[in-house]
Design brief:
- Helices cover 15% and strands 33% of the residues.
- The protein has 250 residues and is α+β, with helices and mostly antiparallel strands.
- It folds into two domains: 3-34 and 42-136 and 174-243, no CATH class; 139-172, no CATH class.
- A hairpin with a 2-residue loop joins β6 and β7 (154-155).
- It starts with a helix and ends in a 7-residue tail after the last strand.
């Protein structure tokens, strides 16, 4: 066995042995328990809000240092960046992308994806004209704000607000849409029918969009649809369709 193969095998075994400490797991569970969103009247798929919690997953620095993939960073997204994704990264099975949708001087840049039989993860960046990330900021004018999401003068979370006559607390999105199910990203098959999946997104200037089925295999031909009409404080039109490359799916 070559040295490179031995290194890859050792790294893969190291990833599989990673354990999340009980106190970190409990902290994640408490954060979800304390967060409330308004009730959904529709029986359609629900959008999952992904929370960024420091040290949610502890990764050996020496292992990830050999890979520049965004998925090799300390990202979790509600546990969706799991051992199978880490193995795909270690084996070079992520799929490079360079798809861009631009309006109002702001670009949604799709950079990389991991495709499995029941899950798709896509790394995105929202960039200004110089290629830098746009500011993480919100326009809360006219809203009955419950929490502004600002910590020590810096925006760290989405603002929450109370809507008159509606039970629960609403979350003000960073990536806004006028779609009836409030999903700025969704999948369709070759016939144009929506593919039923759970959807998670970071909802920040950079992060991961995840599409996950209930265990059923994804169609062979899939497109990701983009329907965005607001990014942070900026209104605009970011619409398009990108085919999902499944060439590295095993």
């Amino acid at each position: 066995m070559s040295i490179s193969k031995k290194m890859n095998q050792a790294l893969t075994e190291q990833f599989e042995d990673i354990q999340i400490p009980e106190e970190v797991d409990e902290r994640v569970r408490q954060s979800f328990a304390q967060f409330h969103t308004k009730k959904e009247n529709s029986k359609m798929k629900k959008k999952i809000i992904a929370f960024s919690i420091a040290a949610a997953v502890l990764i050996p620095t020496s292992a990830w240092a050999l890979n520049t993939s965004y998925f090799a960073k300390n990202v979790n997204l509600n546990g969706l960046v799991d051992s199978s994704v880490k193995q795909a990264v270690s084996k070079g099975l992520t799929i490079p992308m360079d798809e861009k949708i631009t309006d109002q001087g702001i670009t949604i840049h799709f950079k990389e994806m991991v495709v499995e039989e029941t899950k798709i993860l896509i790394h995105y960046r929202i960039e200004n004209q110089e290629g830098a990330l746009v500011p993480y900021e919100f326009d809360t004018t006219g809203l009955n704000i419950v929490g502004d999401g600002v910590n020590n003068g810096k925006q760290t979370e989405n603002p929450t607000y109370q809507e008159a006559g509606v039970e629960g607390i609403n979350v003000l999105s960073f990536i806004g849409t006028s779609e009836p199910d409030s999903l700025p990203f969704y999948l369709t098959d070759a016939a144009g029918n929506k593919v039923e999946t759970g959807i998670a997104e970071k909802d920040q200037p950079e992060g991961i969009i995840a599409f996950v089925t209930d265990g059923s295999r994804l169609p062979q031909a899939i497109n990701m649809n983009i329907s965005v009409d607001r990014i942070g404080k900026t209104a605009g039109t970011w619409k398009g369709q990108i085919p999902i490359d499944q060439s590295k799916l095993k």
